[in-house]
Predict the structure.
Amino acid sequence: MKRILIAVSVEAEREAVLRGAGRDPRFDVRITGAGSALAAARTAQLLAGGGYGLAVSAGIAGGFPGKAAIGSVVVADAIVAADFGAETADGGFLPVDELGFGSARIGADRQVAERIAAAIASAGIAAAVGTVLTVATATGTAETAAKLAARYPEAAAEGMEGFGVATAAAAFGVPALELRAVSNAVGPRDRSAWRIGEALAALEKASAILPEVLT
Ligand SMILES: O=C(O)c1cccc(C(=O)CC[C@H]2O[C@@H](n3cnc4c(=O)[nH]cnc43)[C@H](O)[C@@H]2O)c1
């Protein structure tokens, strides 16, 4: 039996995933920390132990307005390191793919992502398939939100760990997914508007459908 690693950044996310999917012995829900570097290092440590068939970056996230509302869930069809590249002299941005020394995009299995999103939606939680951005700095202004939306029109959400988990998974030949429940809008920072409880409840419900969908 291959195990499924669910990598989350904090204890509250781990508890939500365990409430949803904890009854399935295949699921190994681990706190791999906040940020892409820590998530990559800890995911790699875990995968090095062997026996995993899938790695999932899961947690709460910012949702792009009009793409993913608070309380909804986004399942990634691509995981993109949004700020991995070079700034140009005129303030533009060149993704690392155009610089010729790497890629900022890791694809996920779109059919699996669609199956998961459909199952979540049929459990009564709004769910969408889209690109999930990984950022080192959570977006805090309308200007940055607009830049990201223009640069990545397929982006539905942003988190801070997905690209790290997916990079580690790729190094071990393990497929990766990302599942994010939206706690706040990507835009001007207003911590008082974050709906963490709502997002964790959505994460729990989304996790509850994983055992039947990830067979
Ligand atoms: O304070 C709490 O109770 C609490 C419970 C669960 C999670 C948290 C976090 O702060 C998790 C941080 C984690 O969330 C992701 N995140 C959420 N919103 C955004 C965003 O707008 N932009 C980028 N990342 C976001 C991210 O993956 C963080 O690591 C607190």
In short: The chain has one domain: 3-213. Residues 9-10, 12-13, 34, 59-62, 135, 138-139, 158-161, 183-184, 186, 196 surround LNDFFVEH (CB under 6 Å).
